[in-house]
Amino acid sequence: MNQHKKVVIVPCSGIGKTYGTVSREAAYEVIEDLRAEQAQLVALSLLVLGDDDARSAVGQYPAIAIDGCKLACASKMVEESGGHVVQEYAVLDVYRRYRQFKPRGIAELNEGGQKLAHALAEEVAASVDELLAGEGGQDA
Amino acid sequence: MSEYLKYTLDKFTFQVATNRYYNADGVWAKEEDGQVSIGLSDFLQQRSGDIAFADVVEPGTDLGFGDEMASIETIKVDISLPSPVSGTVIEANPAMEMEPEIINEDPYGNGWLAIIEATDWLADQAQLLSPQAYFEHMVAEAEEEAKSL
Fold first, then answer.
1. Per-10-residue mean pLDDT, chain A, length 140
2. CA–CA distance from A31 to each of A128, B22, B122 (Å)?
3. Which residue in A has a C-alpha nearest to residue B51's C-alpha?
4. Model confidence band, residue B100 (pLDDT cutoffs 50, 70, 90)
5. Do B75 and A19 make contact, defined as CB atoms within 8 angstroms?
6. Phi, psi for residue B135 in degrees, rounded to 5
7. Rounded to whole angstroms, how far apart are CA atoms A43 and A12?
């Protein structure tokens, strides 16, 4: 796969909430293991600060936002930073698809939370593949 | 149209609709022509958090006062909800299957859980709290929780 093609992943930065932790764990798994070459993590806090590199990344590549709650900060900040959210995940909605994985914990997720994060990561990875395939080989 | 008693604690405001009765758990009951709609109080939904799942007993189920009529699951808690009325469930809110967050969005309106054909509403009503009584109960609970944080 062409290494110049990327998808940006922007997870929730909420602190002290289980869904926020699930969103970040899923994002880490995508960018470290599942699609290390195709996906790039952008920190929501850097977008809030107006960091040039972060803004450039979301302006240059399609973005997948993973929101921990209905405030949808990740999605909103991508759009406000000049980017385009092509796929939005809400952890609550993902949990509804995987009710057997009951997440608990904040600093450390329980087994259910880890499984939910993995299931979410797999979905995000599939979205990365679809997005890149849909770009028809254009280099960014 | 509902009117509300309101209580604000820190950044939270809790409303108690004045046109229905409550049990101490925060389940409301609103009677109309022998049929009683059931739902969660604003305080109960706010303290529970975003509702991921709401399971309501099937229509046709006979319930006694205090029997479990629904359960909700949030990231914080799993709660069994006792029926504030005895009778037969004649309708469960279909929205609970796909969008239970409607409880959080509109607890006294579209977020109702079920409608029960009451066996003896007046007898049940006598065991429930008036809006003012529930409001006072809720304030005490909210303040107690705030102290423990």
1. 76 91 97 97 97 97 94 96 96 94 92 97 97 64
2. 11, 50, 61
3. A92
4. very high
5. yes
6. -55, -45
7. 9
Alpha carbon distance, N-terminus to C-terminus of chain A: 13
Residue B114 in contact with residue B38, Cβ under 8 Å? Answer: yes
Residue in A17, A70, A96 nearest the CB of B52 = A96
Answer yes or no: do B75 and A18 touch at CB < 8 A. Answer: yes
Number of A–B residue contacts, CB under 8 Å: 17
Residue whose tokens read 């994002």: A27
The model's confidence at residue B149, banded by pLDDT at 50, 70 and 90, is confident
Cβ pair A92:B50 closer than 8 A: yes
Which of B24, B19, B18 lies closest to B127, judged by CA? B24
Question: What's the CA gap between A18 and B23, in Å, rounded?
Answer: 30
Give the pLDDT score at A135.
Answer: 67
Contact A64, A124 (CB under 8 A): yes
Its ipTM equals 0.71
Residues of chain A neighbouring B52 (CB-CB closer than 8 A): 92, 95-96, 99
Contact list in B for residue A69 (CB cut-off 8 A) is 50
% of residues, chain B, pLDDT over 70:
99
Which residues contact residue B68 at a Cβ distance below 8 angstroms, ignoring those fewer than 6 apart? B57, B80, B81, B82, B83
In chain B, whose CA is at the least distance from the CA of A97? B52
B9 in contact with chain A, both atoms CB, cutoff 8 A: no
Task: Say how far apart CA B101 and CA B99 lie, in whole Å.
Answer: 5
In chain B, residues 57-76 whose CB comes closer than 8 Å to chain A: 73, 75
